[in-house]
């Protein structure tokens, strides 16, 4: 059996603002598309690497929230990433915290009001 999660969508109110936020914080470059009448900005994906991909998604069924599924983005330096989050209109919700052998985690609110998490492996510390 393969890993169970294959794709995610992050709800946004303003797709251009969200693209700018995620590009500035993480360096992601997006492809904009309309899929099933919804505006989407697709995260980069390389099928030769491990992991999944997703999109920023705008439409009446997409409602940003802090009370739902939490997505973890990998980072090599949580503190630097959280600094960029704050510099670009985000808010720290849970500071860098050790999870022992699993590494470090933190959470922030993005430009759209979503709770997003970060993961830094022990090797990157």
UniProtKB/TrEMBL annotation:
List the PROSITE patterns. VOC (PS51819)
- Superkingdom classification of source: Bacteria
Task: Please give one Pfam family short name.
Answer: Glyoxalase
Matches recorded under InterPro entries: Anthracycline_SecMetBiosynth, Glyas_Bleomycin-R_OHBP_Dase, Glyas_Fos-R_dOase_dom, VOC_core
Q: Which residues form the VOC domain?
A: 4-121
Which PANTHER family does its entry note? GLYOXALASE-RELATED (PTHR33993), VOC DOMAIN-CONTAINING PROTEIN (PTHR33993:SF2)
Q: What is this protein called?
A: VOC family protein
Source species of the chain: Aquimarina algicola
Q: What is the lineage of its organism?
A: Bacteria, Pseudomonadati, Bacteroidota, Flavobacteriia, Flavobacteriales
């Amino acid at each position: 059996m393969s890993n169970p999660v294959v794709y995610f969508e992050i709800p946004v109110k303003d797709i251009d603002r969200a693209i700018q936020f995620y590009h500035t914080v993480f360096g992601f470059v997006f492809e904009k598309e309309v899929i099933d009448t919804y505006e989407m900005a697709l995260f980069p994906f390389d099928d030769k690497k491990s992991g999944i991909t997703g999109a920023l998604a705008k439409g009446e069924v997409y409602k940003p929230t802090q009370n739902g599924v939490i997505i973890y983005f990998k980072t090599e330096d949580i503190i630097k990433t959280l600094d960029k989050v704050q510099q670009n209109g985000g808010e720290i919700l849970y500071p860098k915290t050790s999870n022992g052998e699993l590494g470090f985690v933190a959470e922030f609110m993005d430009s759209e009001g979503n709770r997003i998490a970060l993961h830094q492996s022990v090797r990157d510390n």
